[in-house]
Amino acid sequence: MTESNESVLPIPQRSTDQLEAFLHEQQTAYDALKSQDLKLDLTRGKPSPAQLDLSDALLSLPDGVKDSTGVDTRNYGGLAGIADLREMFAELLRIEPEQIVAGGNSSLVMMREVITYLWLKGGVDSERPWSPQQPGEKVRFICPVPGYDRHFTLLEWFGIDTVTVPMHDDGPDIAAVETLVADDPSIKGIWLVPTYANPSGSIVSQEIAARLAAMPTAARDFKIFWDNAYAFHHLSEDEAKSADILTLAAASGHPHRPIMFASTSKITYAGAGVGFLAGSLATVKWYTSHLGKGAIGPDKLNQLRHAQFFGSPQGVRDHMDRHREIISPKFAEVERVLSERLGGLGVATWTQPTGGYFVSLDVLDGTASRVVALAKEAGIALTPAGASFPNGDDPRDRNIRLAPTFPELSDVSAAMEAVATCVLLAAADPLRSRA
Fold first, then answer.
1. Span 336-340, average pLDDT
2. How does pLDDT run across 378-397, given as a tens digit for each residue?
3. What value does the CA radius of gyration of the chain take, rounded to a whole number of Å?
4. CB neighbours of 142 closer than 8 A, spacing ≥ 6?
5. Is residue 6 predicted with pLDDT exceeding 50?
């Protein structure tokens, strides 16, 4: 988190008269904001049309229907996906091709499938299915917060309880995680976005990953859901490398513990990309064996067009450089406005991510919901306060996830100016009441 220092008196330190004047100033600014009849949206981390345009060559592919091994991609079969694309992304993710499955367009669907198989059948290292067998029996998952709302939604849908731990710059609070898993066999797993986490931008360090891989767990089939959604989504030339969780786990005697996910959803077409799952050889066999009960093969034509579009792992890296050119200025604009409008005032802190799709903004405790409501009334759609916490419940009501990728740069500027005004107005009234 950062809060720029400026030669201004922090708002919480101002006198009652000063706060009254400040409140009047912010109310006037907010009234002017509402009169602009804005319609701006910072809710979801979607690629912009300009980003999607980068992949339009996909529309004229594939060239032919056979992959490099001679497989006719129009036909049934190949549950693990075509070799060309698996080899390409195995190199990018620093694993072996035999450890990766290329599937349909959504890695989130693959996550749901994995939980379903664990729930109904158990995993490679399970003694029994995960689903409760006795009245009152629970299944729990550790969720670092702030985190990804769709992970929480999946758990809630299954009836899996969530246990939260803080997410730090280098990963989850590892001491808290180690304590939780040591003696509680009902805790079956942990969600992690290890590289440029949603929404904090945190990067799980090699040290934290090693402790996650090696830690003793009361549940022998404990799983790390390693959702590497933003592994290649760098915002600068200083590119973070994901911790090598599969190698670390294998070296620690827990080869089946991590299950990795990735996708091209924010690389090519968000609705027509390719999802990936990776793990130990036994995990891959386990996944495809269950998948085969209801599927005969993925869309291999789409996989072939992606393999031809990229051409090589370097082609993926070059493509992501073009994404960075589009979205990096938007993140810079978020930082500029927040620093100029809120820096040094003592009412907000925010992250400065070096990759990914989000900025995590923390406002004064108890005011995030008010900020979102004020923004909505002024025509700016924000993700609901608390969305980055299980059940939408941020106990401090302070966190707001900002998603600047989709709007045009000028709209990002206007939206962030409006957000800053809402933050200041939401902070001024309770501070005046406490004075």
1. 98
2. 999 999 999 999 999 999 99
3. 23
4. 162, 163, 164, 165, 172, 177, 180, 181, 187, 189, 190, 191
5. no
Tell me how far CA of residue 290 lies from CA of 104, 122, 159, 341, in angstroms: 16, 11, 22, 53
Could you tell me the domains of the chain? Answer: 11-52+318-434 (3.90.1150.10), 62-312 (3.40.640.10)
Task: Tell me the pLDDT tens digit for each residue of 228-240.
Answer: 999 999 999 999 9
Residue showing tokens 């919480």 = 12
166: left (phi over 0), alpha (psi -120 to 50) or beta: beta
Residues 6+ apart with CB under 8 A from 1: 349, 350, 351, 360, 362
The burial of 120, by beta-carbon neighbours within 10 Å (0-12 exposed, 13-18 middle, 19 or more buried), is given as exposed
Q: Which two tokens stand for residue 334?
A: 């978020």
Determine the Cα–Cα distance for residues 273 and 232; give it in Å rounded to an integer: 15
For strands 399-402 and 359-363, give the pairing. Answer: antiparallel
Q: How far apart are CA 306 and CA 86, in angstroms?
A: 11
Query: Over 60: is that where the pLDDT of 4 sits?
Result: no
How far apart CA 156 and CA 150 sit, in angstroms, is: 10
pLDDT of residue 434: 66
How many angstroms separate the CA atoms of 81 and 100, rounded?
A: 9
* H-only helix segments in 215-295: 245-251, 281-291
Distances from the Cα of 420 to the Cα of 85, 272, 413, angstroms: 44, 36, 11
pLDDT in tens, 173-200: 999 999 999 999 999 999 999 999 999 9
SS3 229: coil
What residues does 382 pair with on adjacent strands?
A: 42
Q: Say if pTM beats, i.e. exceeds, 0.85.
A: yes
Name residue 99's amino acid: Q
pLDDT band at 26 (very low <50, low <70, confident <90, very high): very high
Identify whether the C-beta of residue 44 lies closer than 8 Å to the C-beta of residue 403: yes
Mean pLDDT of 427-435: 76
Tell me the helices (H) and strands (E) count for the chain, helix number first.
13, 13
Average pLDDT of the residues in 240-257 = 97
* Per-residue model confidence (pLDDT) at position 5: 44
Whether the Cβ atoms of residue 67 and residue 307 lie closer than 8 Å to each other:
yes
The answer to whether residues 349 and 1 touch, using CB atoms and an 8 Å cutoff, is yes
Residues in the chain: 435
